[in-house]
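Data availability (excerpt). The following record was deposited with the supplementary files.
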Amino acid sequence: MKTPWNVQSPDAQLVNRLSRKLNCLPTTAAILVNRGYCDADDIDNFLNPSLRHLRPPETMTDIHRAAHRLARAIVDREKILVFGDYDTDGVTATALLKAFFDGCGAKTITYIPHRISEGYGLKTRHITSLALKQGIKVIITVDCGSASHDAVSTARQAGIDVIVTDHHNAPAPLPRATALVNPKRADCPSQMDHLAGVGVAFYLIIHLRQHLRQKGFWTRKPEPNLKTLCDLVALGTVADMVPLVAENRVLTHAGLRILRQGKRPGLAALFTLAGITEPGPDSQDIAFRIAPRLNAAGRMGHAKEALALLTTSDEQAAQRLAEKVEGYNQARQRIEQQTVEQIQRMIDATPALLDSLTLVLWHPDWHEGVLGIAAARMVRAYKRPVILIAAKGGMAKGSARSIEGFDLYNALTHCADTLCGYGGHAMAAGLQLEPDRLKSFRRCFEAAAQHQTGGAISPSPLKLDAELDLTQVTVPFLDELGRLQPFGSGNPQPIFMGHDIVVADTRTIGNGHLKLCLRQREAAGQPPLSAVWFHPKLKQVPEVLERLAFCVGWHHWRGERQAQIEIKAV
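Predicted structure:
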């Protein structure tokens, strides 16, 4: 199934008008229009994101109730349990609340469950074996809790208040928590359902700080500057692949500035191990270098080690933890590759598997911690929703990943009778089921896909922002492109189409990647541009590329910068 290309064609008059008004290149204006920015004021806010542009937290349902209860716990010195999730979003949200509560002098403990032995979310056993034994009076969840009915009920009966902060789907009925702050609940008017879990937690502490101010709390101690915590918000937001628009863009933009200051010893050590040098990380570095490493702790060891890395102030401990996390990531890469190779052998042995709209596979030897990443790779390879399941022991556990336009959560809801539990959203989900129901679940999921799609899934076209001659890749152009960052979901890095590109040189680097030198065929005197091509599909690169889809930006190395093309498709 070959992916079609779609070169966008914004209104030429609008592009030229904006180009003149903004004093920018027409290509830059075209990209902004392609992103839906057609008004000069909206564009100014986009190009100059500021924390002043954040919507007020009061629009979130239950946020005042949550702040009121937490303020009482802080003032009365009650024990607070921050209960997080084991991915980067949950870990950063946990670190965020810990930092704020520590600054308040609150009595706080943190807990992140083990991915494999405990699974996702707050459970009854966490109330009976942890909260009650520790004398906890208030539990606040981050990045989870919207489906923890039994645990919340047990806590209420024990006299423990539960505050849920989350951003996952929240179908009715909701748990009877003291407060449930989730912009995805049906009765929340905030219109901020794009927030990651760490973003919801950040909004809560904005409101909590204000609530404490009204109570005169900050007359006794310094009021915290929340901007210094935006680095954690940026990490969790980018890692969770939520759209980098509106509040998420503002928070990520501010957070990247803080991250580049290198104030967290653990992150500074991890940046070095990941090969991130000056000027510091961007959103792509977070997505592809930092988040996988932080997630690897939860996948291969325990996410509490990632939390320790984010919160330590000891440089020696930071180095030790960073090296441990790096080791987890290397182990994750090895096991992931073995899993992908095994899946490919299964498909090669049974090609009929690809006759279905979906791909649902299981194996008793698969490691639960890598299934989500392996599923994502299979989605890219086969352009269909993929579910991979570790079918060992008394309960089979799986991870699902989807393609644009196919709602995983909806499809799993149609299969709820075959499952013991599931959760997530349109693009990613987790599930549990009894091993003897694997085949019936596969049939049900395929039927749900047939129903949702009308019997056909077509790959989303590769959206190209504009045609671009390589002679147009200049310093002013690249600097203008840089103002569109941070790139990610909802604001993808611009992709351009080139024609008649001469391949002046090519060599293999890394694990089968290519390093090339490219120039425009008509511009023989132009110096060639450096290019990289990750996982090239061609066995042999031709001397001239008739068409080319590519991104372009600055590549920083040893204090210098160089224009570099990244080939996306030919």
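Summary of structural features: The chain has three domains: 57-310, 332-453, 462-569.
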